[in-house]
Design brief:
This protein is about 35% helix and about 10% strand. The chain has about 300 residues and is α/β, with parallel strands linked by helices.
Length: about 300
């Protein structure tokens, strides 16, 4: 019987090196979720691609579905440098609406803080989110050192940041309390926070909806805010939330009425009454009650 002789295995560097006995192997670092490296999406080829995505199909989609009115962009004139845009969050339409509404010079040097467990759950969604909207992963459960350091580094490099301090889309149409990420980053880097209120996106494409319903929206920009010397991140976050609530009141009434109520401490809360779910829905009103428009071609 003829025995087969196996050829010797080629050694390093033609094959992977062996591990000595007794040495414990380190686990490979994850490449998705909070560990996804989105730096490639901030290089010029990806930035050019994102420019054409934003100014082409994304702008046309927003015009067709949301037909936005934009108010308060003149309040940003005093900002010299990057800014942190902090907005309420009701819909997946919020990010495209803001990306096409934030004016120059911030629009095309803007990154979006995206939930690591949603936008970066696998390689495909990670790459798509980083390319299309300039997203980088953040932990929405809490401000982690990794996410905070990356955001602070980007702000230091002159990038502006779009963040949703509520941490996720509203489940019932009412706002959610603000977390401290935007306030912390502003205090750490000295970059001002611009409060923004979005009106109407929950009627178009709310959480749980299977398809969008075309309607109208309003984007209201507020005056930039900075923390005071005796203000910690928690108190500053509360002030940012109050500013967004005032903008919501302005969107529903007018500038003078909203400021009078803010001065009197009578601004309606973003989070709604602390009642049972059906009573909160009753207090909110019928989110679908407004007349819907038929889709139209955007004006180019």
């Amino acid at each position: 019987m003829k025995l087969k002789v196996r050829a010797p295995r080629p050694g390093f560097p033609w094959s992977a090196p062996t591990t000595p006995n007794g040495v414990e192997l380190l686990e490979d670092e994850p490449t998705t979720g909070a560990h996804y490296d989105s730096a490639w999406a901030r290089k010029m080829p990806a930035r050019y691609a994102r420019f054409f995505i934003l100014e082409g199909p994304m702008r046309a989609m927003v015009k067709t579905l949301a037909d936005p009115i934009r108010v308060g962009t003149d309040r940003l004139d005093a900002i010299d440098g990057p800014a942190i845009f902090a907005a309420n969050h009701h819909s997946h339409l919020d990010a495209p609406l803001l990306l096409t509404s934030i004016p120059e010079p911030w629009r095309h040097k803007l990154v979006v803080g995206g939930a690591a467990d949603y936008f970066f759950r696998n390689r495909l969604t990670s790459a798509a989110s980083a390319l299309a909207i300039g997203a980088f992963p953040i932990e929405r459960a809490k401000v982690t050192r990794r996410s905070a350091d990356q955001a602070a580094e980007l702000l230091g490099q002159g990038w502006s940041l779009l963040i949703f301090p509520e941490g996720g889309r509203s489940p019932d149409g009412w706002g959610q309390g603000h977390r401290g990420g935007a306030a912390y980053l502003s205090a750490r880097t000295g970059v001002p926070v611009v409060p923004v209120h979005l009106e109407g996106t929950n009627r178009i494409f709310a959480k749980g909806d299977k398809r969008p319903r075309p309607g109208t929206t309003k984007v209201t920009f507020g005056s930039p805010l900075r923390p005071t010397e005796d203000e910690n991140a928690t108190r500053f976050a509360a002030r940012i939330e109050a500013a967004v609530a005032t903008l919501a009141d302005e969107a529903g009434t007018d500038w003078w009425t909203s400021r009078k109520r803010a001065a009197a401490g009578a601004t309606p809360s973003l989070t709604g009454p602390g009642l049972s779910s059906w009573r909160r829905a009753w207090a909110l009103g019928d989110r679908r009650g407004k007349k819907r428009r038929s889709p139209t071609w955007p004006e180019l």
